[in-house]
Specification:
Length: 262
Amino acid sequence: MRSALHERAIALRHDRVPFVAARVVLAERPTSAKPGDEAIVLPDGTIEGFVGGTCAESTVRAQSLALLDSGDSLLLRISPVEESPQSGKLTVVNPCLSGGTLEIFLEPVVPAPLVALHGDAPIGHALRRLGEALGYDMVDFWDAALDEAAAVVVASHGRDEEPVLTAALRLGGLDLGARTPEEVALSILAEIVSLRPRPSGRPVATDPPEERAATAIDPVCGMTVATVETSLHLDHGGVRHWFCGSGCLRAFASDPSAYVRT
């Protein structure tokens, strides 16, 4: 089964489908999972593989969906009883566990941001080099899936630009203020980096439980959500937001300004 799961992960990477790789690194009896057990968590919450029973799966699913938006890795400790915080771990109490404790390493695998590039001019070459060094997936415009592109860049100096410019203008223009090809390329990438959402699903310091409300309102759908660690949440602008499900969380992460009142 492990070999099939690894092949599945390779296929997901090829298809640019984000997922979380989960691996059990500690299992204190009695637990159904064993060290080395693995699973993949997909963006719709589907879990392929095995890292524990239903109770453990619910916690793994909730934390994994948050990590897909933050891009951070996490060592998750699931305990049936309250424990003191441990450095480097997120400890979640799940009293429905069979009695043992699990530690599961969660590693999100998120496709590199896709930039559709049109042009064979010096700026285009510089942009490709800088973008690849930053970890962007620099793809020729004609080969790119535009619905997945973080940006469309035209650097062709008037050659076959009309369809590309039409697509680029839908994403907004950039005021570069640069002169050399390298400066122009750097300005473009700096703007792309600044505009990409950087939400974090990792826990941050919050007020003591007795000072927090037991519920919160999902900013996307308006549903009342319990504010417990296993509920889906995301930190933006120093404020923690809670969500009823992964769909609302991803909608918020893609455009927080559409849901945050200023």
